[in-house]
Design brief:
Length: 120
């Protein structure tokens, strides 16, 4: 049984952490990420615009954090950092950083799936 994707009513990680990655993921270097969406942060790394400041919020994030309808406006073009950041328990593993981002917006940690044993 699958659950509804919790990210579709969260978005906290996109508005809490600095989202940085190797510049080679930008379109000018042959990658998917539009150059105008990033800012250079070191000689070989860039960050999503809006995430290199406090308070942080990626300029590609649309909607209100913690509300239904929040989404990434460049989902198909997002970086490996975004693609690899998973909601807790999405594939059975806890992601404490997911908890941290959610807590910053007063959202509870995602609950671990309940394992029901039929053995007696
Ligand atoms: S590019 Fe999309 S997934 Fe990545 S931080 Fe921005 S809004 Fe979030
Ligand atoms: S903080 Fe966790 S639940 Fe919220 S959008 Fe990010 S990965 Fe999804």
């Amino acid at each position: 049984m699958s659950r509804v994707n919790p990210c579709l009513e969260c978005g906290a990680c996109c508005a809490h952490f600095r989202v940085s990655f190797y510049w080679g993921e930008c379109q000018s270097a042959g990658g998917p990420v539009p150059d105008e969406r990033v800012i250079q942060v070191t000689h070989n790394r860039v960050a999503m615009l809006g995430t290199d400041v406090k308070p942080s919020r990626c300029t590609a994030l649309v909607g209100e954090v913690g509300k239904p309808g929040v989404s990434c406006s460049m989902y198909a073009q997002r970086s490996s950092t975004c693609r690899e950041f998973e909601a807790s328990w999405e594939h059975g593993e806890h992601n404490p950083a997911c908890d941290t981002a959610r807590a910053a917006y007063g959202l509870p940690p995602l609950p671990a799936p309940v394992i029901i044993s039929l053995a007696s």
